[in-house]
Amino acid sequence: MHWEIFFLWLEVLVRWVHVIAGIAWIGSSFYFIALDYSLNTKTKLPLKAHGEAWQVHGGGFYHLVKYLVAPKNLPDELTWFKWEAYATWISGFFLLILVYYAHSQLYLIDTFKVDLNEFQAICISLLGIAIGWIVYDIICRSKLGDNNNLLVLTIFIFIVFCSYLFSEIFSGRGAFTQIGVMIGTIMVANVAMVIIPGQKKVVAALIKGNQPDPIHGKRAKQRSLHNNYLTLPVIFIMLGGHYPMIFATDFSWIILAIVIIIGALIRHFFNSRHAKKGSPWWTWLISALLFILIMFLSQIGKPNISNDEKLTLLKNKINYIVLTNAANVVEVHCVMCHAQNPSWEGMNIPPKGVSLETSEEIIRNIDMVYQQAVLSDAMPPGNLTWMEFSQRESLRRLYNEIIEYRKNEGLWEKLKEIL
Ligand code: HEC
Asked: Which of 379, 374, 364 is nearest to 396 (CA)?
């Protein structure tokens, strides 16, 4: 079995686990939110209890009682809900490595935006994920944290800003997944770094017979609320990475902002219903209108320049003599095999699908050509066509020229253009 196929199977397996873990996490979190909103606080309750609910499921009846701080006697055994979240993150991160980091050239990098090498792209992605959480956490712990509405607005602006930034650095699909992973990480870190540690402190204080600090409960509630509203957008982003019309448009970052609003509206609908505060049907109407807006934005934001046009642009910028020299070398030493109809005896298709008949094709495959015929003498096989050192050098010159051009297309040039 070829390694590539092995990794593909691994990807299938990890994706499967990731989706299952995600279902378990979001399922239990939706369940508890619904339970929380539907608690009846007016019935006769045990001492220190806050509310209760009666539910029926799977042939039995459940009687649930909620204590805001804790019951008088803490039971020996408590069921914690945290592994659903952790497993989702761990499997998701593994998937990120398998798909986006192992194939960063395909999925993460767009050399027409910023000419990153694989190492740089992965570092920026990892830093982005870490900084996303750190900044979010600082915002929540700052003075803004006292005002829930202002806090939510600030976080919204922060996320939209990040998604704009990523869309300028990475390919459309890479940027979309990057922001999804950033938000997902914030949600899991909320569980791992704030909600669970706070709960542990409360339990420890109770066991010692002390009064727990109410700040932990307050903080957990706030982070839980954020997670609640971020759930739907994150799922949309994760699925959106499979649909070019969602990510391959200039407005993908605005689409993302709208999706966050839709997610919040729909959560608001369900939260209101669970709390028996009526059914705000207007949320669906506005969501539908916003979704139409997304379709419209996707349409008008379609890339107006095709890859072929980009290639022609690039070709026109490259030094003509360098290009012609390289093309002549390829013509003599490679094209007998690397053509749509190879003239090499017994060969009917271009080997590995690499055709090098036109200068566009040479430019498009220049990285591979450089590896095969300049950095190594793997090509032509066994140096069948007697390629001289000086001829390899002319391929190197073309490669250097293209790299130089890609660098100049970098973020700095863009910034300078804007300023
Ligand atoms: C005699 C036929 C022949 C000639 C001439 C030839 N190649 Fe190849 N090339 C092959 C074959 C066969 C393969 C597939 C090798 C493999 O399966 O690993 C290949 C593969 C390649 C690949 C793809 C490598 C990969 O692993 O994906 C590149 C790039 C390449 N050749 C470039 C060149 C260049 C540049 C030249 C001229 C300097 C050249 N080849 C000349 C037969 C040829």
From this structure: 374
* Tens of pLDDT, residues 271-317: 899 888 888 999 999 999 999 999 999 888 876 656 667 777 778 88
- So where are the chain's domains? 3-300, 307-418
Whose CA is closest to 133, among 181, 171, 90, 167?
181
Q: Is 378 in the pocket of ligand 1 (CB under 6 A)?
A: no
Q: Is the pLDDT of residue 414 over 50?
A: no
Q: Which of 267, 263, 256 is nearest to 294 (CA)?
A: 256
Q: How far apart are CA 334 and CA 354, in angstroms?
A: 10
- The residue whose C-alpha atom lies closest to atom 16 belonging to ligand 1 is 352
* Residues β-bridged to residue 62: 55
**384 Cβ inside 6 Å of ligand 1:** yes
Distance 123 CA to ligand 1 centre (A): 32
Residue whose C-alpha is closest to residue 172's, from 106, 94, 260: 106
pTM, to two decimals: 0.67
Residue 32 token pair = 């508890």
C-alpha to C-alpha distance for 36 and 66, rounded to whole angstroms: 8
